[in-house]
Write a structure and sequence with these properties.
heterodimer; A: mainly alpha; 8 helices; 74% helix; B: mainly alpha; 0% strand
Chain lengths: 199, 167
């Protein structure tokens, strides 16, 4: 096996740690079994389709496609998103264990993780928080109506809120597309395949 | 096979795919097209399986053009793979299975569009999903799962070491 990087260029302590990891039972199995690596690649691809697919649908809705659907109803499709995330993390972990040095010595891997975490955070902290807040407002304005004290929010404020959400939807879409590019490029940009090649 | 290769060379597709980043960029686009397809078609199937009750089918169907766009992107990028290494696909059982799944998904969609879609448009959005819509949705999800599994397995089989069903 050729070593693309010279020994001096890399952190040998880190590499020795990864080399030990490569010797572990699950790592050897994931790497050398006839079918294990492909099985987890398949699970990872299916999970990717579920996770990114549902986020694309949700973001398109935020951007104004099929805008007669209330966001709170659109949220129901995200019920399949979290199981997808779990499947992606589990399958991804096995793929990572098979070739730990290949990913962990490649900056592209950290770009991919950053994109995914950022995109999920946008969903959780912006979109879900917005939905919860607007549900509360609905309830408040409802009770206000009942008390004859109806106070409607200014139209400008609603429009501002909507354009802010659209920016986040575009950011989310770009982050998901970037994570796909980064994930695919992992197979082409690694400088180390196996840490044990260096010892 | 030779004709395909000479077309790929003459059109420049072969050279484009074999530039340093050609293949991975087209692969990434193929995955992105897949996500748009599943995001639109898969979500509509989930609606027919009972998720998202209260969403009118006609409004949700406005997502479908994005799925079609994803499919067209994948048709183009998929052809770029095929033309650049036809022997790796034509004789590959994973590729053949994938193509059959796509054909089946297409037939399923045509039957659904002609028999059930208009009926769903008139159905109350809170009503129970009719059984035949559940059936079409399950066939669709199974087919697209088969397409992804088959696609991912193409590199598992490397013709001529593995051979196709009829060779």
């Amino acid at each position: 096996m050729s070593c693309a990087l010279k020994r001096d260029d890399i952190d040998m302590n880190f590499l020795s740690l990864l080399s030990n990891l490569e010797a572990s039972g699950i790592s050897v199995w994931a790497r050398e079994s006839e079918w294990a690596f492909f099985l987890f690649l398949i699970i990872h691809s299916l999970a990717l389709a579920v996770v990114v697919g549902t986020h694309i649908a949700f973001n398109l809705r935020v951007l104004g496609v099929a805008k007669l659907i209330p966001l709170s109803l659109m949220k129901q499709f995200m019920a399949v998103m979290w199981p997808g995330v779990v499947a992606a993390i589990l399958s991804g972990s096995v793929l990572l264990l098979a070739y730990p040095a290949k990913a962990l010595t490649n900056p592209v891997f950290y770009v991919k993780l950053f994109c995914i975490v950022f995109a999920l955070t946008i969903y959780q902290k912006i979109f879900l928080a917005y939905l919860t807040a607007s549900e509360n407002t609905d309830r408040e304005s409802f009770s206000a109506d009942v008390n004859g004290l109806a106070q409607t929010g200014s139209v400008d404020q609603v429009a501002l809120q909507e354009s802010r959400l659209k920016l986040y939807a575009i950011a989310s879409l770009l982050l998901w597309l970037s994570s796909i590019f980064a994930g695919r490029f992992l197979a082409y940009t690694h400088s180390v395949l196996l840490a044990s090649d260096y010892f | 096979m030779d004709a395909i290769v000479s077309f790929a060379s003459a059109s420049g597709i072969y050279d484009l795919m074999h530039t340093k980043w050609g293949w991975p960029i087209v692969e990434s686009l193929h995955f992105i097209g897949l996500c748009f397809l599943i995001g639109a078609v898969g979500v509509f199937d989930l609606r027919m399986l009972g998720l998202g009750k209260g969403i009118p089918y006609k409004v949700l169907h406005q997502l479908i053009p994005f799925g079609v766009a994803g499919f067209i992107l994948n048709l183009v990028t998929g052809l770029m793979f095929f033309l650049s290494a036809p022997d790796q696909y034509a004789y590959n059982p994973a590729f053949q299975t994938k193509m059959m799944c796509i054909a089946l998904a297409g037939i399923n969609m045509l039957c659904f569009n002609t028999s059930t879609l208009q009926f769903l448009y008139k159905t109350d959005s809170l009503a129970k999903v009719p059984n035949r819509a559940v059936f079409f949705a399950m066939i669709s999800l199974l087919c697209w799962t088969g397409v992804i599994v088959g696609g991912r397995l193409i590199t598992y089989f490397r013709p001529p070491y593995h051979w196709c069903f009829w060779c």
